[in-house]
Amino acid sequence: MWRAGLIALAAFLAGAAAVAIPNQMGFTQILAVLVAVAAAALAAGLAVRQTMEERMRRQVEEARRGLVAAASHDLRTPLASLRLLVEAIDDGVAGEDRDRYLAEIRTHVAVLSDLIDDLFELSRIEAGDISWTMRRVELGDLIGDTVAAFRTAAEERGVHLAAELPAEKVVAEADAEKVQRVLFNLIQNAIRHTPADGSVTVRAKGGPSGVEVEVADSGEGIPAAEGERVFDAFYRGDSSRNEDGAGLGLAISRAIVEAHGGRIWLEDAHPGTRVRFTLPA
Question: Are 147 and 180 in contact (CB under 8 A)?
C-alpha cells in the first residue's frame, strides 16, 4: 500500500514540477529539477512508511504486553490458590477438610489445564498448524446435537434453549468438529449471561453466497463499545468479570470461522446479544 502512495505522490510532484518548468530551461536543468522532485517524493514516502511501521510496532507491542498481562493474571489466580491448599495439607492443618481441599485442588488443576489447552489451540489455529477435515456438513443436525448437549445446563439456570431451523437443509463446507466448537462456545456464553426465565435461540439459514448461523439470547447484552473487543483473546467485559473462563472462547471461535473463510460479528440487539457467523456453502 505504501508503494502505491509513494508512486502517486511522486507522479503528482513530478507533474507539478513539469508544469512549473520554464520553456527556456535546458534539458540538463529540467532533468536536475525532476531528479530533485523525485528525491523529495521518495524521502516523503519513506518518512510516511517509517511512521506507519513505528505505529504498527507500538500497537503490536501493546497488544503483546496486554496478552501477557492477561495470561499471567489468569494463571496466577489458580496457582496462588493451589499453593495455599497444598501448604495447608502439607502442614497438617487441613484436618477433616483434607478431602475438600483435594477436590478444590483438582478443580484448579482442571482450570489451568483448560486454559493451557485453549491457548495452545488458538496459537495453532492462528499459525495454520492444524489439520482440517472439510466436508459437506448438514448444520441442522450439528446444531440440534449441540443444543441437546446444553439442554440440562440451560434448564438448571431456568433458561429456555431452542433451535429454530428452516424446513430445507442448511449445508456448509466445513470441519464439523471445529464448527461444533464454535457453537459450543457461543451457546455456553449465551446461557451464562442469560437470567432465569430468559431464552437462547440458535438459528441457521442458507443463501447463494454461504450459510449464516445466529446465537441470540435475551440477556444483559454487550455495549456497542465492546463490540469488536469481545473477540480478542482474554478480553472480558464488565458483565463477565466474575464469570468462569479466561476469555478465550470467542477468540477461538473467530479464528475457526476465519480459517473457514467466513466472518463472525455482533449484530445489534436490544435487549440481549446476537452473535452471527458465516460459512461457505
Answer: no
CB atoms within 10 A of CB 236: 19
Q: What is the C-alpha end-to-end distance of the chain, expressed in Å? A: 32
Strand partners, 215: 202, 275
Residue ranges and CATH numbers for the domains of the chain are: 1-130 (1.10.287.130), 135-279 (3.30.565.10)
Prediction pTM value: 0.65
pLDDT single digits (tens) 160-184: 999 999 999 999 999 999 999 999 9
Residue bearing cell 504486553: 65
**Best CA proximity match to 212, nearest among 161, 260, 248, 255:** 260
Asked if 205 and 212 count as a contact pair (C-beta separation under 8 A), the reply is: yes
Q: Is the pLDDT of residue 95 over 80?
A: no
Q: Give the Å distances, CA to CA, from 29 to 13, 39, 40, 201, 267.
A: 17, 15, 17, 75, 61
Express each pLDDT in 270-279 by its tens digit. 788 999 999 9
Distance between CA atoms of residues 202 and 195, nearest Å: 17
Q: How confident is the model over 77-86, as pLDDT tens digits?
A: 677 777 777 8
